[in-house]
């Protein structure tokens, strides 16, 4: 590969089970090696420092998404599904879908959901607290249950097949990595899961009062084409479930392991929002995304040749000691703004207000009812090529 001779080289498989299970040591190695590191295993360059990750994400002119934001280069490889008109598109094609979804998912548009989501959170927490011994799996009972209780209804999905949502997201987030055992394990389900998700994107499959119906109404107005509308619905179903599940799990894990921070939240429940952002910084539920260089471009003096892939380590940037004081500490007194856990620039997470509303309602319902959260066993990780995800979070809670 041209221009790699001068670069620090890392031969670690960054998508190996060991690296995915415990990425922090890898992140230290990558940040320490230099501003641009050559990953020989995948023949790509990588950025792991906050300054370079932030700058590359902000520079869509030189670092495009249209060739795919995974390892696969859409210039040379057939994508596993028609590309996303948001995530995998560049201006000007990105503009119209982005504007439509931005308006539908804006804080002002979500206000009507808050009271119902708050009630749903209170019901769920009451049910978990009264139905057992106070010992339960906070991953399945809270982090999975709550988004699945509120988000599919908000999109306007029908009642059948919702159990496909998490497996489909798992497939989609795995697909940004190499074709490894994680991808092969689900290969037999891809056709069936895709068929279900694609069917839910049709106007007839959606209720007439959800995000999905508003996307179709935008097509009626001519703000989107009729071909784009189902793909924008698909973006919600792909990006909107697993992310919040593992983001909420990150919050619960953070508080279970930082009891003094839980006390702080209980004293000041209005910290729920900053707590969620700090948990997203601290765990980075979405760990990585790629970009592709549109021209020969230099980063910190290192040439990145046109058409080559660059892997951005959001999780490493979010714990860069040159950007954050005591980066490994989960701390509600810090200002986490500037973290890249939701990305940065024109592709920055358009669903972040949805995620924040879920976190805020669930955390305030819990904070009002639970004095302590503690782990009763080591939490289980679920491995995914892109998501820092969970399998279990066994906890004991004490009611107030
Ligand atoms: C984009 C993370 C929740 C929908 C992104 C990106 C990140 C991200 C890092 C940027 C991708 C890039 O730059 O290539 C997260 C995290 C979440 C979350 C950590 C929860 C904790 C959601 C939710 C939705 C959503 C709830 C839908 C309601 C999207 C969409 C994009 C996106 C459609 C593409 C935006 C574009 O390309 O313009 N998200 N997300 N996300 N997210 Fe999220
Ligand atoms: C999409 C999308 C957006 C963000 C993340 C993502 C699977 C997908 O537009 O389909 O991950």
What do these coordinates show?
The protein has helices spanning 17-21, 24-33, 50-58, 95-104, 107-130, 138-155, 165-174, 181-186, 190-200, 211-221, 228-239, 242-257, 259-267, 272-283, 314-317, 352-367, and strands at residues 9-10, 37-39, 44-47, 63-64, 135-137, 288-293, 297-299, 302-304, 309-313, 370-375, 380-383, 388-392, 394-399. The chain is globular, with a radius of gyration of 21 Å. The chain is an alpha+beta fold and 400 residues long. Helix 5 (107-130) runs antiparallel to helix 6, helix 6 runs antiparallel to helix 12 and helix 14 (272-283) packs across helix 16. The chain has a 6-stranded mixed beta sheet. It has a single domain (9-399), classed as Cytochrome P450 (Cytochrome p450).
What fold name goes in the CATH topology slot?
Cytochrome p450
Give the % helix: 40-55%
Corresponding CATH architecture: Orthogonal Bundle
Q: Which quaternary structure do these chains form?
A: single chain
Which ligands are bound? protoporphyrin IX containing FE, 3-methoxybenzoic acid
- The ordered string of helix (H) and strand (E) elements is EHHEEHEHHEHHHHHHHHHEEEEHHEEEE
Low-confidence stretches: none
Main pleated-sheet profile: 6 strands, mixed
Please tally the helical runs, counting DSSP H or I stretches of 4 or more residues: 16
GO molecular function, one term: monooxygenase activity
InterPro entries: Cyt_P450, Cyt_P450_CS, Cyt_P450_sf
Protein name: Cytochrome
Organism: Streptomyces griseorubiginosus
Structure in a nutshell:
This protein is α+β, with helices and mostly antiparallel strands.
